[in-house]
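Exam revision sheet. Question 4 asks you to relate a sequence to its structure. Input first:
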Amino acid sequence: MKTTILFDLDGTLIDSTEAILESFGFAFDSFGQSVPDDELIKAQIGYTLEDIFTSLGVNDRVEDYVAAYKSRYREISRPKTHLIENAAEAVELASSFARLGIVTTKTSKYSAELLEYLGIMHYFDALIGREDVENVKPHPEPIFKALDNMGRNDAFLKNNTWMIGDTFLDVEAAKNAGIRHVALMTGYGDKNHLKSLSDIVTEDALDAVNVIKNSYFQNS
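Answer key, structure tokens:
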């Protein structure tokens, strides 16, 4: 029986940093506010937009800032997003021995459209985004929802499920869901923090998939 691999999106499979930063700039400019430093924004990627704006000092009209961000992001996300090096190869290899899903705090509708544009959406059996759950990572709900949608939420299959992601939110969500995990160096998470949280840290998604593949065939 195939194993299950769940991927994070930003910093794991795709790099949409340019689009994200421009969209935050647009939102702050729209309300006459100074735009925070790029590094401050990048350090928050992985959290919900509401939480990021709040952490960046927006106390009122957070939903209006989010709406402004989304309006800009929808316009520019395709031309300003690309697959991270080796991501396509990672997904193709993973699909040869596993069923695949996406667990992200991005909006699932536009994430699916973006992955269709990038040519890899057909590999995934489930995509869980912000609007699909009440509790986001590091809560385990998005992982459980993905497994439910894939018909794979029993104890045996959970023990054969992996989460691949680039921030501590992904690692902690996997731990809270009781599944295995691999942390990546390709994204936005603090590298030393990730190494302190995860026993398996790899350079990119392809390395992570190879680790999982080796484990899968050793235990088959």
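Marking note for examiners. Strands lie at 3-7, 14-15, 82-83, 98-103, 124-128, 161-165, 180-184, 201-202.
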